[in-house]
Design a protein that fits this description.
- The complex is a heterodimer of chains A (154) and B (593).
- With 154 residues, chain A is α+β, with helices and mostly antiparallel strands.
- In chain A, 49% of the residues lie in helices and 12% in strands.
- The model of chain A has no long low-confidence stretch (mean pLDDT 95).
- Chain B is of the alpha/beta class and 593 residues long.
- Chain B is built from 19 helices and 18 strands.
- Classes of the chains: A alpha+beta (154), B alpha/beta (593).
- At the A-B interface, helix 3 and helix 4 of A face strand 8 of B.
Chain lengths: 154, 593
């Protein structure tokens, strides 16, 4: 908890305590942990002297700011049409079978979360996905299995 | 000035005027939902669209300023078709179980659906696919997301007028919803229960938690003695909910109606408002004495009023470091409740177990206040049920009472007599004015130096009003106040209250006495008052409150004979042992979200 208090203070010192400092601060928190806890949002609200509901409203608007518990590695597979046409569905099934979770879920060891995302701009190398900030493209069931196995070793 | 035509009629309006306001000037009605005169422009519901000749798309008239030579059509075929589709789309996401809805007959969406004769099943009903839940956790406010059209009037109310921001817009697109912090239940968050969101919700998404059936049951039970108290602002608001114009004083008719409803005795919160003045005035003088004479460093000044339960919950959440500055006096409602089951029961020879105490309030936060665990000093729940002005109006309709034709009746006794000082509790600045009328006279032996007792500087609609009063030629026992300039400030609307408290905290302002009422205009603009509300309506109600004051034979709380009697027969002295037991309370530090 104290760590979090200090982190929020540090981020506020860095980005300022105005209303428009909110998003950079939340992004800073996202870098530390893959999701925003309610405690963290209350701390941010206190630091900026705004309501916690306001912080939650802002955070929940952005797809890449999670307010639900997420694993260490967040997989976001593209759900738009180019990727679907290039065999995304088989890739998705492979991920689900390998990790034993469905879209929206997190593994019990809190290592992986599986989500869908709108277009991430890799249509020319579809199907594509992100693991945290790293894109993986031209996926096949075999390729995605290998990628996941590498992450499982980490 | 900008020249334009609306439906072929020429009009010249100030730059910056919206098309909506220009159309209204020409008496063209344009329907609105998200728009509200008390709030900033949102432009999200789209029902106010109009056609601008030469523009490709329809424009939202509430959010578009006029431009030179604009040609506007408010009722073309294109406009009417679009509006109808917009209403139908809103309805496709709205649980339209109108006949079973509490807002049936008072719903703005329902009247628009009626006006535009919307058809059945034009769009797929999307309500079933969202698993909406109804939040009934708050004793004051019920929130039903299935009725919400996401116009965000509530969010803007909570932010702009109240500075509380208990409600926010969460998520986006089809997932977008009006939410508290982390969608927590309403009773767990910083909501002050003020009900201003209810006053502005165009549908049944936010309504008061109603206790009408419970009260009917108590009235019909032959073994109970049901006493009812009526707050100052109810008597100048109730008429609006029964078809009368804003600003009509209906005190006598209201008393008559309550008797017809079957209440065993009809009494007045104004009596305990007078009592509050004596207790709170004494407390203020006590604090001043401790600060100025005893040089006691622990005494907390400025002292703030404590009548408004929305303000109390707000300060508990937002400024817990100032809780010792809040007067320990209970609100008039709770003083009344504590006395109804003690003093009143004794005097009337009633078993307090059988006394049921009901209050009629312009307020939804009073429902929460009555439920506080500390509000049981009579040994029972001091106030059993709190009804809003609107709920009372509904009971009067249910009972088939022709309100307008009722002959005026008088309050019962005891605890039914009051003064002009008590009735102005219903307006912002009123508690301050009533307190000054009494405190000044106690200290100097003279009436306050304002023409006709009317302390004009503390009245009005400015959000924050400062005033000071110089104390001179005191009675000997108050000589320490000679030459003291008592500095007062009045704030209404919690956003203004927050600013005042910040100024106090940061040392930017020094006061002795702070009055806060949570709602715009004071209790007369309370969350339980008739809908709609706007500044004109609140001004009418304010005029009615001050007219009521002028019409009272006694206008100073300390001259109320029933007040003299209760101290003689029951309480002993102001701030005495019995008062502390029954009429004073303490506050709780609450979390910040």
């Amino acid at each position: 908890m104290l760590e979090q208090v200090n982190l929020v203070k540090e981020l506020a010192d860095k980005h300022g305590r105005r209303r428009d400092s909110l998003i950079p601060i939340l992004q800073g928190l996202m870098e530390e942990k893959n999701y925003l806890t309610d405690e963290a949002m209350v701390l941010v609200a206190k630091e900026l002297d705004i309501s916690a509901a306001d912080v939650y409203g802002t955070a929940s608007f952005y797809t890449f700011m999670d307010t639900d518990v997420r694993g260490k590695y967040v997989i976001r597979i593209c759900k738009t049409i180019s990727c679907s046409m290039k065999g995304k569905i088989d890739v998705l099934h492979t991920i689900e079978e390998t990790l034993k979770i469905k879209v929206g879920e997190t593994t019990s060891d809190k290592k992986f979360s599986l989500l869908e995302t709108n277009c991430i701009g890799w249509c020319h190398k579809a199907p594509a996905m992100l693991i945290n900030d790293t894109p993986y493209t031209e996926l096949t069931p075999q390729k995605v299995t290998e990628i996941l196995q590498e992450y499982m070793k980490l | 000035m900008v020249n334009l035509t609306i439906n072929g009629l020429h009009i010249s309006v100030k730059e910056g005027t919206t098309i909506l306001d220009a159309a209204r000037k020409l008496n063209f009605k344009v329907p609105t939902l998200c728009n509200h005169p008390d709030l900033c422009v949102a432009g999200n519901c789209r029902v106010c669209v109009v056609e601008q000749l030469s523009a490709k798309t329809l424009v939202a008239s509430c959010a578009t300023p006029v431009t030179e030579n604009m040609q506007i059509l408010t009722n073309s075929l294109k406009v009417r078709t679009a509006r109808k589709h917009i209403i139908e789309l809103l309805l496709s996401e709205h649980k339209a179980d109108c006949t079973k809805c509490y807002k049936n007959g008072f719903c703005e969406l329902q009247s628009l659906a009626n006006e535009y004769s919307v058809g059945d099943h034009v769009y797929i009903d999307l309500v079933p696919i969202h698993a909406h839940k109804i939040d009934k956790t708050s004793p004051s406010i019920t929130k039903d997301d299935s009725k919400c059209i996401r116009c965000q009037r509530c969010v803007r109310t909570c932010a702009e007028l109240q500075g509380v921001n208990a409600l926010t817009v969460a998520n986006k697109g089809k997932e977008m919803k009006i939410s508290s912090f982390f969608d927590k239940p309403m009773h767990e968050v910083i909501c002050t229960n003020c009900g201003q969101c209810i006053n502005r919700c165009p549908t049944g998404a936010l309504v008061e938690r109603n206790y009408i059936e419970e009260v009917w049951e108590e009235i019909l039970d032959p073994n109970t003695h049901v006493v009812v108290q009526t707050a100052p602002a109810v008597r100048i608001g109730l008429g609006e909910a029964l078809g009368l114009n804003p600003g009509q004083r209906v005190t006598g008719k209201m008393v008559a109606a309550l008797k017809r409803l079957g209440f065993n005795s009809v009494l007045d919160t104004d009596f305990t408002a007078d009592l509050t003045i004596i207790e709170e005035g004494t407390e203020l003088l006590g604090r001043l004495k401790r600060a100025l004479v005893d040089k006691d460093p622990t005494v907390k000044l400025p002292m703030t009023t404590s009548c408004s339960p929305g303000w109390i919950k707000f300060i508990e959440h937002a400024f817990p470091e100032f809780l010792d500055n809040v007067s320990t006096c209970k609100s008039p409602q709770q003083m009344f409740g504590a006395l109804a089951k003690t003093y009143y029961a004794q005097k009337k020879g009633l078993d307090p177990k059988k006394v049921v105490s009901v209050s009629i309030m312009p307020c939804t936060a009073k429902k929460y206040e009555a439920d506080r665990p500390e509000m049981r000093s009579s040994g029972f729940k001091d106030v059993d049920y709190v009804l809003t002005t609107r709920e009372l109006a509904r009971m009067i309709k249910q009972a088939g009472i022709n309100f307008d034709m009722l002959e005026d009746m008088k309050y019962d006794s005891i605890m039914g007599q009051s003064t002009g000082a008590a009735v102005i509790f219903g307006a912002t600045g009123g508690v301050m004015e009533a307190a000054l009328r009494t405190v000044y006279e106690i200290v100097t032996g003279r009436e306050v130096p304002f023409n006709g007792l009317n302390i004009i500087p503390v009245r009005g609609m400015d959000g924050v009003r400062e005033a000071s009063i110089l104390i001179e030629n005191c009675k000997p026992e108050w000589a320490f106040l000679n030459g003291v300039e008592v500095k007062c400030v009045v704030a209404h609307g919690l956003a203004n209250a927050r600013q005042v408290m910040k100024n106090v905290r940061d040392g930017k302002a020094v006061y002795h006495f702070i009055e806060v009422m949570a709602c715009p205009g004071g209790c007369l603009g309370g969350g339980g008052q008739p809908i709609p509300t706007n500044e004109q309506i609140r001004k009418k109600r304010t005029e009615a409150i001050y007219a009521e004051d002028m019409g009272m034979p006694i206008r100073k709380s300390h001259e109320n004979p029933e007040i003299t009697a209760i101290y003689k027969d029951f309480l002993g002295e102001p701030n005495g042992h019995k008062s502390h037991e029954l009429l004073h309370t303490h506050y709780t530090v609450r979390r910040s979200y």
